[in-house]
C-alpha cells in the first residue's frame, strides 16, 4: 500500500473530518454530562429531566435569535434562561423532597421532563427549528469552521467549570457540602444555598450545550431524550459522581460514534456504542471508576 497516497486521499480527509465531528459530539455530551454528574455528586439527585434543559437551551437560542438576530447573544440568553429555569424547578421541590432518595427524585424528574417536552411542543410545534451557523466555510482535513469553534468553546467551558470547582471559594464550598453536608452546616454554610448554585450551574451547562448545537442539529422536542441517554450512559460508565471519568467517557463515545458512522448508519453506530457501554457495566458494575 502506498501510505502517502492514502494520507493524501479523500478517504483520509473524510476520516479526519469525522474525527472532528466526533470531538464536537463528545464535548457536547461532556458539557451535558458534567451538569448531570455535578447535581448527582452534590445533591444525590438522579435528574432524568436534565436532557430537557439541553432542548430548552436550543429552543431559547432559536427564539432569541428571531428577535436579536445575533447568534452569540442568543446563546447567552439561552444559557441564562435554562440555568434560571432549571434552578427554580429543582429548588422548588428540594425542601419537600430533601433526603427523599434517588428513586423518588428519578420518578419526579422523569415526569418533569415529560411535562417540559409537552410544553415546548405546544409552544413551538413539532417541526425542526434551525438557524444558519454564525461562521461559514470549511477547513481542509477538519470540516466546518463552526463545528471546530463548538468543540473549542465546549472544552473551554469544561476547563472553566473544573477550575471553578477546584480553585474558587464557591467551588470549595460545593465540594465541602458534597463531602459532608452536616459539617458544613455547622460551620455556617447553607447547604440549601449551595444546592441552588449547583442546580443553576447544572441546567446552564446543558442549556449552553443545546444552544451551541442548534446550527448543527436543529431544535426538536425529542432532542433532550437523545442527549440524556448518551449523557447518563457516560456518567454511569465513568463512575457516578466522578467528573473526570464522565468527561473521558464522553469523548470516547463521541469519537466511537463518529468512526462507526463511516461504515454504518448513524442509528446503528449509536446502538453499538451504547451496547459497548452496557458491556462495560456488565463486566464492572462501578464502571471505569477504578481507573481514576
Biggest sheet, in brief?
A: 2 strands, antiparallel
Query: In which range does the helix fraction lie?
Result: over 70%
Count of folded domains: 1
CATH class: Mainly Alpha
**CA-based shape:** globular
Strand order of the largest sheet: 1-2
Radius of gyration: 19 Å
Mean pLDDT: 83
β content, as a range?
under 5%
* Unreliable spans: none
User: First CA to last CA: what distance?
Assistant: 40 Å
User: What is the SS-derived class?
Assistant: mainly alpha
Under the CATH scheme, the architecture is Orthogonal Bundle
- CATH fold field value: ABC transporter involved in vitamin B12 uptake, BtuC
H/I helix tally: 12
What is the succession of H and E elements? Answer: HHHHHEEHHHHHHH
How many E strands? 2
Characterise this structure.
The chain has 292 residues and is mainly α. It has one domain: ABC transporter involved in vitamin B12 uptake, BtuC (Orthogonal Bundle), CATH 1.10.3470. It is globular, with a radius of gyration of 19 Å. The protein starts with a helix and ends in a 9-residue tail after the last helix.
Amino acid at each position: 500500500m502506498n501510505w502517502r497516497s492514502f494520507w493524501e486521499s479523500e478517504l483520509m480527509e473524510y476520516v479526519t473530518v469525522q474525527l472532528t465531528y466526533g470531538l464536537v459530539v463528545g464535548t457536547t455530551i461532556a458539557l451535558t454530562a458534567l451538569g448531570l454528574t455535578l447535581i448527582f455528586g452534590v445533591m444525590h439527585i438522579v435528574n432524568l429531566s436534565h436532557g430537557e434543559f439541553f432542548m430548552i437551551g436550543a429552543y431559547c437560542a432559536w427564539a432569541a435569535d428571531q428577535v436579536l438576530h445575533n447568534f452569540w447573544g442568543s446563546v447567552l440568553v439561552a444559557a441564562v434562561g435554562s440555568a434560571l429555569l432549571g434552578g427554580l424547578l429543582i429548588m422548588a421541590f428540594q425542601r419537600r423532597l430533601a433526603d427523599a432518595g434517588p428513586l423518588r427524585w428519578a420518578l419526579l424528574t422523569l415526569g418533569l421532563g415529560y411535562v417540559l417536552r409537552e410544553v415546548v411542543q405546544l409552544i413551538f410545534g413539532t417541526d425542526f427549528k434551525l438557524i444558519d451557523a454564525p461562521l461559514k466555510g470549511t477547513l481542509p482535513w477538519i470540516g466546518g469552521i463552526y463545528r471546530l469553534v463548538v468543540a473549542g468553546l465546549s472544552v473551554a467551558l469544561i476547563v472553566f467549570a473544573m477550575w471553578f470547582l477546584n480553585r474558587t471559594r464557591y467551588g470549595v464550598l460545593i465540594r465541602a457540602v458534597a463531602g459532608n453536608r452536616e459539617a458544613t452546616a455547622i460551620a455556617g454554610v447553607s447547604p440549601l444555598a449551595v444546592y441552588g448554585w449547583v442546580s443553576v450551574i447544572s441546567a446552564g451547562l446543558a442549556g449552553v450545550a443545546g444552544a451551541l448545537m442548534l446550527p448543527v442539529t436543529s431544535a426538536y422536542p425529542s432532542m433532550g431524550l437523545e442527549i440524556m441517554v448518551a449523557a447518563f450512559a457516560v456518567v454511569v460508565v465513568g463512575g457516578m459522581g466522578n467528573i473526570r471519568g464522565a468527561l473521558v467517557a464522553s469523548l470516547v463515545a463521541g469519537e466511537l460514534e463518529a468512526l462507526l458512522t463511516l461504515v454504518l448508519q448513524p442509528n446503528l453506530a449509536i446502538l453499538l456504542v451504547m451496547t459497548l457501554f452496557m458491556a462495560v457495566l456488565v463486566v464492572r458494575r462501578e464502571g471505569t471508576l477504578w481507573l481514576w
